Amino acid sequence: MKTLNVSILQFPGTNCEYDTVYAFKRLGHHTQIVWHKEESIPDHTDLVVVPGGFSYGDYLRSGSIARFSPVMKAVTEYANRGGYVLGICNGFQILTEAGLLPGALKRNNNLHFISKIQHLVVVNTNNAFLNRLTPGEVLRVPVAHADGNYFIDDAGLAELEKHGQILLRYSNAEGTPTALNGSVEQIAGICNRERNVFGLMPHPERAMESILGSDDGVRMLEGFAAALEGIPAA
Amino acid sequence: MKAPLKAIINVYLKEGVLDPQGKAAHHALGSLGFDNVTDVRIGKQIVLELDATDREQAEKEIKEMTETLLANTVIEDYAIEIVG
Asked: What is the value of pTM for the model shown?
């Protein structure tokens, strides 16, 4: 499969960048970490990943300060040109704050920091991210967040549904959507309408080795190379 | 002439957006016997001090600061009060 150049952003407080490097290297891709003060992203980048962590200590709101970093201006331009951008956890929060994805992530309904392996049901695979999976399939992927409660108003939710932008929902082992953190419609991951910007609260980069609990992240993250190579959906 | 100006910005979740912190505090107040509380909303207060030459211009800027950074208008409302 095609070898990708994956640019992984790093803000003060990011802590999942090296797990993300590991995950994409395990898939045979090239990775580079890009410091938030950079005003451009490296040439020939095939995918930008905004990784998890606690950028700027989650001050004010999770992701609200990071989204004004110089590098985010470059990411926005990259996304507007059709480049693939994936935000994981705090990265998802940053992308919603930046307006690259609709909605917002607020405090979990039970006010707990939820850290566990969670079942997810795949909703949409007609995209560059989850095209190695099948709708209805159940995955096991770690979640670790305090502000993962996805909110979007009714009109926005109708738009997401109409355009197939809901990618993943929290579920039980049988794939029935179940509440985890209070997210509207149990939403765990979405994409933008143009289908090139993706965000999810669960951590596929932490599900790369079955000996560590799950390797379901492999088939999730494999999607980008398949899409860029033009391999049809699984 | 530049004069100091102080603004208090209250940011809170919109009506219709569940406020889990408010709900927890509401529940705790009930447990303490304060059973006449009908609603609790928890927000945050941001106090800004700035140098302004033109009050009207300053108010416009504070609104811009709030909508750009201090509040996320997808889920939050805000109220700006200029106090001097």
From this structure: 0.95
